[in-house]
Design a protein that fits this description.
The protein is an alpha+beta fold. Helices cover about 40% and strands about 10% of the residues. Strands 1-4-3-2 form a 4-stranded antiparallel β-sheet, with helices on one face. A two-stranded antiparallel sheet has the order 5-6. A hairpin with a 4-residue loop joins strand 2 and strand 3. The two termini are about 35 Å apart.
Length: about 250
């Protein structure tokens, strides 16, 4: 299906300009975030975190002070690529951030001509991928979630994505990604996809390659709605009435 080009506000992104050399490894144990070595500190950054959460991981791993943590946050959401990094213990925070951005540039680069072929701006793709990353229960769900969100965008519907509400609300004491409330859906913000059509102004998380590939190659579906049941199994619906029935069947 040919996708409509949605233009989001320009990200002040230093794409393909980060000069720091990326030092990373593609495999690591998921049982721990940090493993000290004789020369470097190995830090695992999971997919789908917002940059404040990533900063906290590095702050704990590298003993940053508040100024270092703030400096790390100076770059754009969505470009702190999730990966396992080997960091010199005394590296300054801005250089650590540039490592992640360099890896982002390296990983996203091969996909740029593919999105161009589909008439999709890479900023649009990245923003949508950041939502897919948070909305999908697992990587297997990502193509169907992406397909449904593309359908809603192409039909000029609100995305109604809870993850965007979680992003705009922030951490109110229960973590950044705590369940949304009816009150949250009434917040006036360009990130509220229950009130606004189209995409939010910029990414809401830092997605991995699986989410980016799902946006590039979404599942073909006529569904416009989805939910995950208590076992994290996705159920989609073509109409709102069918969606309400799924709510009754799987969530009550």
């Amino acid at each position: 299906m040919k996708k409509i080009l949605f233009i989001v506000p320009v990200l002040f992104l230093q794409i393909f300009t980060a000069s720091a050399q990326t030092l990373s490894t593609s495999t690591a144990s998921t049982s721990t975030s940090t493993i000290s070595t004789s020369t470097y500190i190995r830090v695992l950054i999971p997919e789908g975190l917002r940059k404040e959460e990533i900063a906290k991981i590095f702050t704990k791993s590298l003993n940053w002070d508040k100024k270092q943590e703030k400096n790390f946050l100076s770059f754009n959401e969505g470009t702190y690529f999730p990966e396992t990094y080997l960091i010199p213990p005394n590296e300054v925070a801005t250089k650590t951030a540039q490592r992640l951005i360099s890896k982002f540039n390296e990983q996203l680069g091969p996909y740029l001509p593919l999105f161009n072929e589909q008439n999709v701006k890479w900023t649009t793709a990245l923003t949508l991928a950041s939502i897919v990353q948070r909305e999908a229960a697992n990587s297997q769900d990502m193509p169907i979630v992406a397909g449904i969100l593309w359908n809603r965008l192409n039909q000029k519907m609100q995305l109604n994505a809870d993850a965007t509400l979680q992003y705009l609300r922030g951490d109110t004491g229960n973590g950044y990604w705590a369940q949304v409330s009816v009150k949250d859906k009434k917040i006036k913000s360009p990130y509220n996809t229950y009130k606004n059509k189209g995409l939010p102004p910029h990414p809401i998380s830092n997605p991995g390659i699986s989410a980016i590939e799902a946006v590039l190659n979404p599942a073909t579906t006529t569904c416009l709605y989805y939910l995950h049941d208590k076992d994290h199994i996705i159920h989609c619906a073509n109409t709102y009435d069918e969606h309400l029935q799924n709510i009754e069947t799987y969530l009550k």
